[in-house]
Structures are given as C-alpha cells and as structure tokens.
Amino acid sequence: MEELIQHLTPILKEVWGYIFPNEIELHWGILIVLYPYLTGLVAGAFILASLVKVFNVKELQPTYRLAMLTAMAFLIVAPLPLLGHLGHPEKSYEILITPNSASAMAMFGFVYAWYLMAVLCLEIWFEYRRDIILWAQKETGIKKWIHKIISLFSKDISEKAIHFDKKWVKIITIIGIPSAFLLHGYVGFIFGSIKANPWWSSVLMPIVFLFSAIVSGIAMVLILYMIITPIRGKELDIVCLDKLASYLFYAMIIDFSLEALDFIHRIYESEESINILAYLVSNKLFISLIVIQLFMGMLIPLAMISLIKIFKAPSDLKKMVYFISAILVQVGIFSTRWNIVIGGQLFSKSFRGLTVYKITFFGLEGFFASVVIFCLPFVLLYLLTKILPPWEEARNP
Amino acid sequence: MKKIWHKIPEQVKRLSVLLIVIVAVFIVANSLLTPKDFGLVGHYRAGSIQENADRELKYAGQEACADCHDDLWKLKNANYHKNLSCEVCHGPSINHTNDPDQFKPEIPRDRTFCVVCHEYNTSRPTGYPQIVSEAHNPRKICVTCHNPHNPTPPQAPKECSACHAEISSVKSVSSHMDIPCTKCHVTTEKHRLHPREFRPTKPVDREFCGQCHSQSAKADKFIPRINMVTHEPRYVCWQCHYPHLPEAQ
Amino acid sequence: MESNLKVIDKKVERRTFLKKIAILALAPIAFGLLGATDKLKTVKKWMLKNGYVPSNHKWGMGIDINKCIGCGRCAVACKNENNVPKVPFFFRTWVERYRIYENGEVQVESPNGSIDGFSNLSNSNRKLLRSFFVPKICNHCDNPPCVQVCPVGATFIGEDGVILVDSDYCVGCRYCIQACPYGARFLHPETHTAEKCTFCYHRIVQDKVPACVEVCPTQARVFGELTKKSSPLVRFLRMNKIGILKPSLNTEPKVYYANLDVEVK
What is the domain extent for residue C168? Predict the structure, then answer.
C-alpha cells in the first residue's frame, strides 16, 4: 500500500482539470495493452493460415504450418497478462465455474477454451497426425515418447484415415474463421460495450479490433518467416512474400477505412465527450496516435508497399521494404492497443480533466514483466518448431 | 453395435476419450469449487449479504447518545444545532456507548474545528451562518462565547454582514454602499434570533426603485434617472440590475 | 397516478422482454456450457440473522444541493465507518465544488474529496455567476453497469436495491471500475478487491442511517425507503424537482438530487 501511495502522490499534481478522486489510479496498465495485442496476433495468424486451406491460396503454403504454430504460441501466452493484473490471480478459476452470463469478460474462459481446444489444437492435430506418427516410428528416446503422446498413440495412417484428416482440417478451418473473428471481435466487445467510456463505447470497436488483428497477424508471420528462413539457410520464397504483402496491404486498407470511419463519425456526431476527447488526442495521445499509430504504423507502410507494387522493384529492395513495413505495422498496432486501453483511461468520466499514466518498471504489472510476457511466445514458438517442425523438408513423403 | 464401433475412425475414438476426460474433470472441479450458497438468491454468493451486514459499526447514531446524555440532547434539540448528530463533533463513538468509562469521545475545542462549517465561503448557500475567522475575535476559542449545544450568539448580531457577508462585501463597493439594508428589507427584530422563521421583506414593484430613480423622484441630482413609463416596462428592476451592485453590466 | 404506474409497468415489461430475447439468443450456449454450473434452485426469501429480509426493502438516497455547505463531514465519516484508507485516492463518497463564471468557464474541484476543505481563492479573473457543492456517492443504479460486467458474480444488486461487493469472491479484474460512469468504485489497496459505497449496509440492516447521512449537519442527505409512504425519501421526492446523474446512460440511479445543476456530471 505504501508503494502505491508513493506512486500515486506525484500524479495528483499532474492532473489537468477535474477528475473524480477515484480516477487518480489508472487501473488497466501495460499488461492489458499487451492482452489484445497478443490475441490480435493469434487471430491474424490463424486467418492467414486459413487462407491456404479454405481459399486455396497455394502461394502461402510455405507459411501455413508456421502461421498455425505462431497462433498457438501466442494463444497460450495471451491469458498471462490478464492473470498478472488480477488482484487475486488465485481466484481466477471462478470465471469458469460461476460465469456471469451478462458479462463480456466472463465469456473469456469459454471463447478461449473453444478456440484453443476445439479449433487450434484440433486443426494442428489433424494436420500433423500423419507426420507425428511417422516421426515417432523413426525416433528414439524422449522425442519418440513426446510424439507418441501428442498423437494420442494413434497409428492409423491408411489412405482412408489420411483423407479423413484432410477433410477435418478443412472443416475445422471453416469453423475456425468465425471462431477467430469471435475471439478477437469479443476482445473488442469488452471495450466497445462500456457505455460509461465514450472513447471505447463504439459498435465499430469489435470490427476495428478484428481488422487490426488481421493486419498484425499477417505482419508477424511475415517477420517470422523472413527471419527464420535465412537462419535455416534456405531461400525466401518471393512469390509467397508478395502474396503476404498483398494481403497485408488489403487488410490495412480495410483497417484504415474503418478507423477513419470511426473518427469521422465521432467528430460529426460531436457528442458531449467530444471536447475532452479532442483535447486528449491533440495532447496526451498526439505522439502515440497521430505520429506512431497513424503515420508510422499505417500511412508509411501503405505508401511503401504501394510504391513497390507500382514500380515493380527488384526483389532485394522488395524484401527490405516488406520487412520494414511489417516491423512498422507491429509498432503501429501495439500503439493502437495502447491508445485504446490507456487512452480510454486518461480522461475523466466527468469529461472535465485528464490524468497521466506512469508506467512502473518492476512488479507483476510493470514494464519488465510485460517484456518477459511479450518474449514468451517466441520462446514457445521455438519449442513448438522443435516438436512439430513446420518446414517443408520435415514433411514425410 | 460392434460394426458401428469399427466404422468410427480411430482418430475420433481417441479424441472422444480425451474430450470425455476434460469434460469430466471440469464437471467434478466445478461441483467441488462452486460455493454452496452461490445462486441461492441471484447470481452471487448469498452469504455475502450477511458478510456485508456483519461489518463493525463505528458511529453509534444520535439515538444512542440520548439514553445517557438526556440533558445535553434536549438542549441541543431545542437550538440551532438541533439537526446535528452528536458524532459530527464528537467523532465515531460506538466504543464509548459500549464502554463509557474506558473510551471517551473527542471534544474538539480548537478554533479550526467550528470553521470547517462556519468559515465564510463563496459557494455556501446564502443565509447559512458564516464568519470570517480572521476578523471574528481571532484570539478566542469559539466555546468561550458560544455554547456548542446552544450556539445562539451571546448578542444577536448587530450587523447584517455577520451572516450575509457575500452581499455586504459586494454592496460595500457599489454606489448603493451608503444605503442601509433595512431601507429595502424590512427586518423584524426576531430575524436576528430566528433567521429562517422570520424572514425580511423584499421590494415587490418598480415603484420602489422609482422612489429614487424616477424622473419625478425627490432625491439627489447625481442619482441616475429613468423614465418609468418607457424604460423596459415589462420587467421589474432587479431582473436586469443587481440591487447590491447596480453598476454591474 | 394510474398512468404513471402504467409507464413503469411498460418499462419493466420492456426490460424483461429484452432479457427474454437475450436468453433465447444465448440459450444454446448457456445450456451447453453453463448447464453444469447453474443448477436450478428454488427461490426462497433470504433472511439475515437479525431478521432483516432484503426483499421487504428498497433503499435510496436524496441529496439537496441547496443545503450542502461543503464541510466534508460525510467523506470523513464514511472513511471512519468503512475503513477506507485515509489517502486522497480512495473514496466511497466525496463532495465536489462547482464554480461557474460569467464567461461560462466551469471550475470543479474536490481537494482530498472535500476533506481538506474548499478555499475561497480562485484562479479565474472572471466574476462568479453561481457556485454550489455536490456530494457524490455510488448511485446504486437499478440498471447497474458494474454488476452487468462483473465476470464472476462478485458484485450484485441485492433484493433491497443496494449494490454490494463480495470481497471474498472478487478476483480484482477492475472491469466494474471501468464500467461505472460515476467513478464511484476503487480497488482497495490492501485487499486488492473492488470497493464502493454500500449505503453502510451494516448500519441500514440495523435500522440506522448511513454514516454520511448521520453526520450531515444540514440534512442535505436524506436516506430512506423508496416504496413506503412514510419515508422521508418519498417526501423528498414529492417536494422537490429531481435530477439524476447521466440519465442518458439509462443506469436508473437511486440517488436523487434536488436542485441539480446542468453542469454536474
């Protein structure tokens, strides 16, 4: 408690205008910024993967399994920031045993479980089953047993069984697309349904969340593919990269239009809250929203990719531009999450003042904890690629 | 039966076992972990109502004081502080009511205490008794002159400004500064002792102001005059001119 | 009176209708997933140990802004009564002072929730148009956004209309704090659970008024039953023009303000 008081006391002096006395403590910090960012990557990566199976986009085949594993790694880590920020993480099981059916947040357990178990795990299992069985036959020691357990000791690799697997991968992907929409649209709804907060309360919120998720997921797979392939000493598939970049470009156009629509709508309707929100955007959020989210994260990558497309650039230049764009997009989307989560708490619900967010460095809700949580999915992804190699050459003929 | 079992693909059988295990674990955990009183009244732990009701009292409530301090209670209730609960000044006293000898309630004697309510503040409702403590017997503690249980001032205030500080401070810099309050407000003696029960009068018509400001008025020449017939005849004067500061625009 | 009653009836009907639709839409999910948890239990009248039956009451509060002198005794008493940490970041009730100037400028403040008192100094060079104090408290909404969003059922509206927190069950997710339009909730720095005004539940079940009402020197706060004729609150509602905070959000507060100014949000 002493620590908290020491943290809050200087903030008292930095408050602009009037805020309710209970609003000095800002409740959802960087961990809650991380949560929609991570789930966004899951949904985005999955939707990218499903392009291969459902829409038969052959060019993206090299990234299919990688995208699935990426989604898995991020999904496993996604609930950690939520747990970390709870006042009582040890009571978190209550959300599963007595969920309040009126609460958007209570559905988390079910949406998450559905997506993890019914969609991702199953799809990966059916996709990899034949390979796992064959790997297990060749291997010895601990790896053999890991693969045996993962395959649930399944042995049937007859033509009929493999056909059954393929059929189900497709069915699950088809179920998976609305599920991915549900997972991230639902995260948007958690914010969009708070009528007390005019910065969040918007019917567009779930859709904006979804498309920014797709943008970030595609960009993340692109980054991972461009980093991992040279490390493995392989050639980058430029056709695949072009396709990835195209999808990134289209998703960004939709995302940009939606955000612009939201922005214009707010200004045009000019409700009670418009003055404080305008002040918020032009002051506290200027750098993170206008400069980073809009210019760096959206307009510059859009311009770069379209120039590359128009002028048919050489492939080395292309690769560099794609990579830089994808990194900028990541920064931009993280900034988007920041602007929504933190921005929505910087202004008072009295609409008369602004507070500040001072990030702490140590502790469960601090900066370092969030860096660790952000790095965890990459570690997990590394482990997953060891157990379930997503590379073409690892496939059994 | 056996035929159907054989027809089910191997994968499905294995996954079903896993699914059944997961569902069973969930159901068992659910029934073990859900509190027994959850959902008895609504979607919450019914026992929580009792827990909220079981918290400790700190304020006894003024009825409890009346049991022993009958005399003070009666005195207080007959005077200005009749709406005040004892614990406003004496602090939370449940301990005192439980064990009167060991726990004594606070008795604030400091000058800083009474002014929490009675210091002049521009935002306080008019007519509420306020003083400017810097000017109001600055060296004395309040209780030397005012009995807190019967705070009637030792002498009824002579000046209107004693209670109506805001108005008198505005009026003192206006062109009406030399007009006594009682010129416009007929104030009975009783208003000083029972301010809310006996209220002063207020002027009711234009002709009242016309006594000085009409063209035919027998007043000093420097007083501004208006034509009572043509000057905004549909309004009474104080709808536009604030009588305590008439020169304000 | 009769037409009034009808309007209320319709409102209730509409809400139950909306609920029915929601239930229909969610039924498959609800039965599939929650079926195991939500056992059908017989509804009986819940009674506390001292004989208090929540369903026999319906509590509310009236606040007369013209009577408030901004002394802050309510905020002090509340902190005493409810063990609220005595630092300027946590309040179950507080008092705001509004100063509205000739040019339309509005200054609002609440130094330490009113406990530190209000200074006459002003940093505006304009002339004061009007000024007043506004006590704030949990509105105990009949349509409470905080209860709606609580994921585990740790905050709830009792049958007597009081919004309570089950601090044993609260996981500390702070969604309710985000959902409250009035800033009436905070996270207790020691228990790490959500906290708010309970109308001093432990007092009202013993026929005592909440601490803030007990100590208010000018009776600016009136506490009582909303549905009983011989209640000071019902008289308050009859004698005054009443306003509520943020009516557009349809939270249906049970804290009623007399002489509420348009600038109060």
Answer: 44-265
